[in-house]
Design a protein that fits this description.
3 domains, homodimer, 5-stranded mixed sheet, 14 helices, Nucleotidyltransferase, domain 5, 416 residues, Arc Repressor Mutant, subunit A, 20% strand, alpha/beta
Chain lengths: 416, 416
């Protein structure tokens, strides 16, 4: 006599990743690409018999992964009932943490943003403090729509991470984060969710790929210039993370064999010579040694501190020293990118990050150096531009990262 | 009354690329991965009904794309009849042209090499002369097994090409080849074949990927050091050609901002400073200025010419000047590769080409420079070694390139 397990009465919420068979995954993929689809069209697409389609659809409907969605146009007979992916099955939380700000968005399973919040943050804070702030803001957002944390099926968060483990690895500017588990932190808060963590510039590249200038681009590079310099690489239409997850780590490529010693111990690293702090140092020197009266004035007004905005303003005012400083940074970055363009032959380079707000002079210098030093064939159709999504790229990427991990396909052992 | 078309009596040979439906492609893919498979297992894999499997199998059998292959083990009932991919449907010709040699191989559709030929060639010859030599040798090879040129379904050939069009683009060392159509040349000779052309180092990378050290490696770089320096990139398990097909063109990456002017017009290109001619120039200088009595002796014996083998021999004899020359080359190449390792984070770098025969000193210097200048995370599991396939890599890659283009999948317009 077969044993019958007691069935739970309360419906259980799904838990990500949702494990599906290869055949179920085919149906879900077809549904996610379209508004709605009939059973007949599903049969045509898969090559399966109608009973097989009905069986697979039934299994997915039972798990609430697809729902009926009205009727389609008649093909001569009865109007077919349509099926669609249940994008209201749960929610996705995307987090983006910049050096001084934090963006949070809540989206449905179609990546449609329903709620968003943006505010200041300090990345130098301890992990528990910074993530605590992210948690409070995310829960407050969800509460606005009466969404329970258990309904969140995916969370995307930035971090200089070991992508596989979801823990941070030796982040040079954030020593307190070494080995900290972001996944471990968020799991108790969102128990049904898969917590996906990736570094900030990979998220930005993913954001542009899914909803920005990278749409339809197979091979492109997103370069973030801020306190450091890093790149997110899209190759064959997906994020390229490399063998140990460190791809895109271009800040320590040598820009000048005669350059200064970097904090990493090597000579002439791009980051040490061209990122935000290098620009600030050179601006400070120009303000103090009389090369730039405009910067000297801004230094006095700013109580001994020069920010990127000050250098940007000086450039707009036509200050030669400031222009020279920005051009020098752009040229160094462009020289390194030129080599990467020869190697990788992308269709597009997008420049973002805090220093990108410094104005068009930087982009012009980067572009000039790339065009001068790359081969003609590699630059024939290359576009170099600022990231059009700007601050939106990171949080959009975080949502898509979590969505990419929503399903795990498990092949049935078939013995063949 | 249905009209009946007159059927041709003589069987027509297939012509590549073989156009198949998405469903037929699924069966072929399953067959190519396995020795043999039963209809029952095919049904299980695809999710199709038995009649559907029988129908698709029948269509493919009619085109001789699959054949019956004995019986499998009984699963309790009748022993199932097995099907296998018909790898004897036609043949593939792979060609590899080096600076001084030409390799040709004939393989079946499983990439099993049946016949091979290797001999001298001069890449500086006119296209018609060089390819005429390839044609004569290929036809002679085929004749040994009574294979008719019409039975050849694919030809893989190297060339610095516009991959899409199969014509050469601005090859700096071979001006007579500009715009020459390799595909146009071979088409009348092998009228049933798809002629696939790619640059030599992409073929070498593909050879290593399919049958050498690259087996199972998702992300690696093959570096060819000869008269020039180029790289073949494997990303996510396939050759990465880039947006305009010029990916891997690393010879003109800047190795030294204070370096000599390259024939491309830029300063300090890697190729100008570290490839074969640069090594030869420096060896010649060392022979003439008294720095190396050993090289001076070899120069006298060689009647005023020093070859890579002479430098290699001098290194083995412990000649300081020769060692220093090779180390300098390796260091420059390693410095450039270090930047590419930070960017791309490969698991493996394979070094091949004529200069690779110069000995282990070169590899040691490359490795040292890469380890010194790349980030710890990127080199944690990185292997840098000589290409184990050596001269076989190119011709193996040429065969696989042609095989990759054997089938074209055409989706039926389904209206969904």
């Amino acid at each position: 006599m077969p044993r019958t397990a007691a069935k739970p009465i309360a419906p259980t919420l799904p838990t990500a990743p949702l494990i599906v068979s290869t055949h179920a995954a085919q149906i879900i993929a077809a549904l996610r690409k379209r508004e709605a689809i009939s059973r007949t069209d599903l049969a045509r697409l898969t090559g399966w018999s109608r009973p097989k389609v009905t069986g697979e659809v039934g299994k997915l409907a039972k798990r609430s992964l697809l729902v009926e969605s009205g009727e389609g146009a008649s093909q001569g007979g009865r109007r077919p009932r349509l099926l669609k992916f249940n994008h209201e099955l749960g929610y996705i939380v995307g987090v983006d943490i910049g050096a001084t700000s934090m963006d949070i968005a809540v989206a449905d399973l179609n990546a449609q943003v329903l709620l968003r919040d943006s505010g200041p943050a300090d990345v130098r804070d301890e992990p528990l403090e910074l993530l605590g702030e992210a948690k409070r803001r995310a829960l407050a957002l969800l509460a606005r729509r009466d969404i329970r944390p258990k309904q969140v099926l995916g969370v995307g968060v930035p971090g200089p991470v070991d992508f596989i483990k979801g823990v941070l690895v030796a982040p040079p500017l954030m020593p307190a984060w070494e080995g900290f588990s972001i996944r471990g932190y968020f799991h108790p808060i969102f128990p049904s969710a898969f917590i996906a963590v990736d570094n900030d510039v990979n998220l930005m590249a993913l954001g542009e790929l899914k909803g920005g200038a990278g749409l339809g681009q197979d091979d492109f590079i997103f370069v973030k210039i801020g306190t450091g310099i890093g790149a997110g690489i899209v190759c064959h239409g997906v994020i390229h993370r490399g063998h140990t997850g460190s791809a895109g780590d271009i800040g320590h490529i040598c820009a000048d064999h005669q350059g200064p010693i970097c904090r990493c111990g090597n000579v002439g690293c791009l980051e040490a010579m061209a990122a935000g702090p290098a620009i600030a140092d050179r601006a400070l020197a120009a303000a103090q040694n009389g090369a730039s009266p405009i910067l000297a004035h801004k230094l006095a007004v700013g109580q001994g501190v020069l920010r990127a905005e000050d250098v940007a303003a000086a450039v707009r005012e036509g200050d030669h020293a400031a222009i020279e400083i920005v051009q020098r940074s752009g040229q160094l970055i462009g020289d390194v990118l030129a080599g990467l363009v020869n190697f990788f032959n992308p269709s597009l380079i997008l420049v973002g990050g805090g220093v990108a707000t410094i104005g068009n002079q930087l982009l012009a210098s980067i572009r000039q150096a790339v065009l001068r030093r790359s081969t003609a064939l590699a630059t024939r159709e290359l576009i170099v531009s600022y990231s059009p999504m700007g601050g939106e790229a990171g949080v959009t990427g975080a949502i898509h990262l979590a969505l990419e991990h929503l399903f795990v396909v498990q092949a049935k052992p078939s013995g063949v």
